[in-house]
Write a structure and sequence with these properties.
By secondary structure, the protein is of the alpha+beta class. Helix content is 34%, strand content 24%. The chain has a domain of 145 residues: Neutral Protease Domain 2 (Neutral Protease, domain 2, Orthogonal Bundle), CATH 1.10.390.10. The strands form 5 sheets. An 8-stranded mixed sheet has the order 5-4-8-2-1-14-17-16, with no helix packed on it. A 5-stranded mixed sheet has the order 19-20-21-23-22, covered by helices on one side. Strand 20, helix 5 and strand 21 form a beta-alpha-beta unit.
């Protein structure tokens, strides 16, 4: 079990969490990738923006590839630091898990550059293993059948951390994410925010910075990376090629690569500029490439009109080896989307029960619905259950919403991850101590995409299917409601976190929009984006803007009710179906036993 802390409500003011508009960190990174051994040698020259009013005696970085919440194993280190130097002189450092602490020989009151040499290894995971398949995919939707089945799969005990495939090699794809280099910790009120990450959700928390990156890779490997890149062979070792990339004013720098990627690109006009959207998918999923590009491009157009201009000239949507119930991961100018979402879900139905001793789920659904094997996978949702079969009625009630969700999850995920370019990447926030600041608004923003592209009826359907169901499922399976503004570690687990932050927290914005009206709601979001782009917003930063624009609307009381208090059952609904987990597990155990020879 993960260690938990007593839940607490964040009461920091916006000014206390807002980053200064001073000089940005500057990263010069170089890495040579051994694609056969899945190792790399790297160097980093990082300019640290010290100022006279806050002289630095030490510096803290995060190397997230060493964090068990990213790679699922707290016993092994994936990156080791060989040396740290200042003005070519070695200086002492310590690396504890993901936290790199560097001692300075004297206080530094002006920007200075630290040089680091380090090396790393990337874990291998078999494609579809450990959290893959449809059971893992269902963890990304609200009614988590994968979690219901988890008791059968993990009867010997639960794991402390989940490997989400963000820093891994699997399925022919190497994902380094933004976890492969030392990331400067945020400094606030004269101290580094460098406590060990814990809890669920995203872990990265950083100031905006500037990047110059050089990657040396085998010639046959296609690289998808943040920023603007050029590709050259001249100057690279034999059989290698060198990728040079730059990115300015971004939160991180992500890298994925594969020998099997196919690539396409299309330009989208936003009204302010032209954005080139590039897609990278495995050859076997090439039929989904244009669709992925189109969803991302249309989302950029919609959000640019609604929230403010997308700040870059390019964006990349990249298939990645994400698993364990995660559907996608945002990085600066790039999103990684789980391979499972590119697949035909009907071909994956058998994977949900393969580890449960149940045989093919296709056959199971056919038996429950009275149809022939093979018929269930061809339907959009399970057929009506056979008369007099309460077990079939129960399983059908669970699988029906799951199948409907799967049809929209590809588009919902990409829209959500694109929205993070506004809420998390441009407007920074602390994803560990106040995850609702970006995640709740981002999940609601995905509904804005559906509304502007398909109409309000479609958006309302997505709201009920993804947001309301996320909350209701969490209440059924994970216990009590909780405030939405807790630290990530304060939630009991993934289901409660998803229910409160992605479900109830996102629905707060639906209630807020109805309260203040569209004009003030979107004016406030545009002002929020303008004011905090490139900076770090606090939990109440948007609220303060809304209060100034609508002082008589009661937005403080609404915020208190939805974010600080626990009225989710009244405001959203709690899904009154007690004991579904135990009942479904017993049902499936019985069906599994009946199928054994």
């Amino acid at each position: 079990m993960k260690s938990r802390i007593v839940p607490f409500i964040l009461v920091f003011t916006a000014s206390a969490l807002m980053a200064s508009a001073g000089p940005r960190p500057r990263y010069q990174l170089a890495a040579t990738i051994d694609y056969e051994l899945l190792t790399f040698q790297a160097s980093a020259h990082i300019q640290v923006p010290a100022v006279a009013g806050d002289p630095l005696r030490d510096v803290s970085f995060f190397i997230y590839a060493n964090y068990a919440g990213i790679v699922g194993d707290e016993r092994r280190r994936n990156i080791s630091v060989d040396s740290v130097t200042l003005n070519e002189a070695a200086i002492p450092f310590s690396l504890t898990g993901p936290v790199l602490h560097v001692e300075l020989p004297e206080p530094m009151a002006a920007p200075f550059t630290l040089s680091l040499n380090y090396h790393g290894v990337v874990p291998r995971v078999a494609a579809g293993g450990d959290g893959g398949g449809l059971a893992g995919l269902m963890g990304t939707s609200g009614l988590d059948l994968g979690s219901l089945l988890g008791g059968l799969e993990n009867s010997t005990g639960s794991r402390r951390h989940t490997d989400y495939g963000l820093y891994t090699y699997s399925g022919g794809m190497l994902s380094l994410g933004s976890y492969w280099y030392p990331q400067l910790a945020v400094r606030q009120d004269g101290r580094w925010i460098d406590s060990m990450p814990e809890g669920v959700g995203d872990v990265s928390f950083s100031e905006a910075g500037d990047f110059e990156v050089r990657l040396t890779v085998p010639r046959g490997v296609v690289v998808a990376a943040s920023g603007q890149a050029d590709d050259q062979v001249i100057g690279a070792p034999a059989g290698k090629r060198m990728i040079r990339a730059t990115a300015t004013g971004v939160r991180d720098f992500a890298v994925l690569m594969s020998e099997d990627y196919v690539h396409a690109a299309r330009s989208y006009e936003t009204g302010q500029n032209s954005v080139t959207v590039e897609g990278f998918v495995l050859k076997e999923n090439e039929s989904q490439l244009e669709r992925a590009i189109d969803v991302a491009g249309r989302a950029i157009q919609i959000f640019s009109q609604r929230f403010g201009p997308y700040p870059n000239s390019n964006f990349k949507v990249v298939e990645g080896p994400i698993r364990g119930g995660a559907g996608g991961m945002e990085f600066s100018g790039l999103t990684s989307v789980a391979s499972m979402l590119f697949e035909d879900w009907s071909k994956s139905l058998g994977g949900i029960s393969g580890g449960q001793g149940l045989g093919s789920l296709d056959s199971l659904l056919a038996a429950l619905s009275g149809g022939a094997p093979g018929s269930a996978a061809r339907r959009q949702s399970p057929a009506p259950s056979a008369p007099g079969n309460p077990g079939a009625d129960l399983l059908g009630s669970v699988l029906g919403p799951q199948m409907e969700m799967l049809q929209s999850l590809f588009e919902m995920t990409i829209a959500h991850e694109v929205a993070h370019q506004w809420w998390a990447i441009a407007v920074g926030s602390d994803s560990q101590r106040a995850p609702f600041v970006d995640e709740s608004l981002t999940n609601y923003s995905a509904l804005v995409y559906f509304e502007d592209r398909y109409g309000k009826v479609a958006a309302d359907s997505m709201r009920d299917l993804h947001l309301k169901t996320a909350y209701s499922a969490g209440r059924m399976l994970a216990g009590k409601d909780a405030p939405a503004n807790l630290a990530a570690a304060a939630y009991a687990g993934d289901l409660q976190y998803a229910a409160v932050v992605y479900g109830k927290g996102a629905l707060y914005y639906d209630a807020l929009r109805r309260t203040v009206g569209d004009k003030i709601f979107f004016e406030s979001l545009r002002e929020y984006y303008r004011r905090y782009s490139g900076r770090i917003a606090g939990p109440r930063s948007l609220l303060e803007i809304l209060e100034a624009k609508a002082p008589q609307a009661g937005v403080e009381a609404l915020y208190r009710r939805w974010i600080e208090e626990t009225h989710g059952d009244e405001d959203v609904g709690n899904g009154n179906l007690m004991g579904i987990g135990d009942l479904l597990q017993k049902l499936l155990q019985g069906l599994g036993s009946s199928q054994k020879p």
